[in-house]
Amino acid sequence: MRGLRRGAAWSCVLGLGSSLLVSSLHAREPELPPTWRDDATSRLEALALLQSLNAELLSHPSATLTLERWCGAHHLAPEAKIIAERVPGEDKPLPSEARAQLQIGADEPLRYRRVQLACGPHVLSEADNWYVPSRLTDAMNHELDTSDTPFGKVVQPLHFRRQTLSAELLWSPLPQGWENAASLPAATGAALVMPHHVLEHRAVLFDQSNRPFSLVIESYTSQVLAFAPAAQTRP
């Protein structure tokens, strides 16, 4: 009897240990992003959110700080901090109108920087940036060359302003003219398929002396919606 009791006790201990181990392993698994359902309510919510983000980006000079606020408001990561992850590779060709927009001659040196702006595990934006190093301080140029600090944070001491050249919604969750349609698209019951890029901004940054010093093309990804839709979180 004692042997049976001792064996039963060990079985309980081992069972408890296995349960704790399984729970620990599950706790370490990365959380999968929520799935948006393909229905009218989710499409309306996605469109409203993209338009809200677009308006926020248009009304503030720093896309980095805007994305940090967005990340925090929608709990995309434990800490709402944007990290610029440098993307190595060859420089992209300079857009044909860039030198005129930056008000520089054909011989003025330019530098190119491509980064992914991420909050936690989510890459929210991919940015191509051509800038005039002679219009930045030596310390700024050094930090841009040697670190992953977002461009907007590096040049923040310039108290720059942003002039948007274009802002384009690359994907609309609802078809054009949906507001005049008799009914919204029928629900499919499947996941809502989103393209990689959903929004694109082109802008020029100006310093306090009104000199342009940077041309940036920002492509925002569907990860800006990597949170549970409100319609799916309501009881």
Describe the structure.
With 235 residues, this protein is of the alpha+beta class. The chain has two domains: 1-30; 36-233, Chorismate lyase. The chain contains seven helices and six strands; from the N terminus they run αααβαββααβββα. The protein has helices at 2-28, 40-59, 63-73, 98-102, 138-146, 151-154, 230-233; strands at residues 82-86, 111-119, 122-131, 161-169, 197-206, 212-221. Strands 1-2-3-6-5-4 form a six-stranded antiparallel beta sheet. A hairpin with a 5-residue loop joins strand 5 (197-206) and strand 6 (212-221). It starts with a helix and ends with a helix. The model is unreliable at 1-33 (pLDDT under 50).
Characteristics:
disordered N terminus; signal; six-stranded antiparallel sheet; Chorismate_lyase_/UTRA_dom_sf; 2 domains; Chorismate lyase; elongated; single chain; Chorismate-pyruvate lyase; lyase activity; lyase; 6 strands; 7 helices; 235 residues; alpha+beta
Which strand-content bin applies to the residues? 15-25%
Please write the CATH class name of the largest domain.
Answer: Alpha Beta
CATH superfamily of the largest domain: Chorismate lyase-like
Number of strands: 6
Number of helices: 7
How many domains comprise the coordinates? 2
Architecture of the largest domain in CATH? Answer: 3-Layer(aba) Sandwich
- Based on CA atoms alone, the radius of gyration comes out at 24 Å
Considering DSSP H and I runs of 4 or more, what fraction of the residues is helical?
Answer: 25-40%
| CATH fold type of the largest domain | Chorismate lyase
Shape: elongated
The helix/strand order is HHHEHEEHHEEEH
Widest β-sheet, arrangement of strands = 1-2-3-6-5-4
